[in-house]
Amino acid sequence: MEENLPPGFRFHPTDEELITFYLTRKVSDVSFTSKAIVDVDLNKCEPWDLPDKASMGEKEWYFFSLRDRKYPTGLRTNRATEAGYWKTTGKDKEIFRGAVLVGMKKTLVFYKGRAPRGEKSNWVMHEYRLENKHPFKRTKEEWVVSRVFQKSLAAKSHSRQHPRINL
Fold first, then answer.
1. What is the pLDDT of residue 126?
2. How much is the pTM?
3. What domains appear along the chain, each with residue ranges and CATH number?
4. Termini Cα distance of the chain
5. How far from 146 is each of 22, 57, 116, CA to CA, in Å?
């Protein structure tokens, strides 16, 4: 699909669009496919392998995945891969469509190694899920849509060296 887009156009949906257009359709019809978002088991892939699995994207990649439960009867999510684990940072952000809560956004950072001694990487994931009262939401098997990207270390250090001054 990206090859068919004119130069300068990118797939860059808003948080609300990811939930209301893509995730809602995936949850209501598991056979729903998107040219821009592919199904991937994120626990079986290292973040640096994900760009090759994506159907499009240069700096950020999008995936549908089922949340993997840590224990068969529990609700805790397994976020470990062979090389490391995704760790939640901060609290979840509510995503609204107008005044209606449609979903939640969780931010995770990938750490190489095993908790609690993992080494923080620059890989970041934004995981979007439907809000709890959604009619299609199941309790055990839950689809999410994720945006994966590498946080720019240069931009971070650049912003610290040159604070923005409003004149």
1. 98
2. 0.83
3. 17-153 (2.170.150.80)
4. 43
5. 11, 13, 24
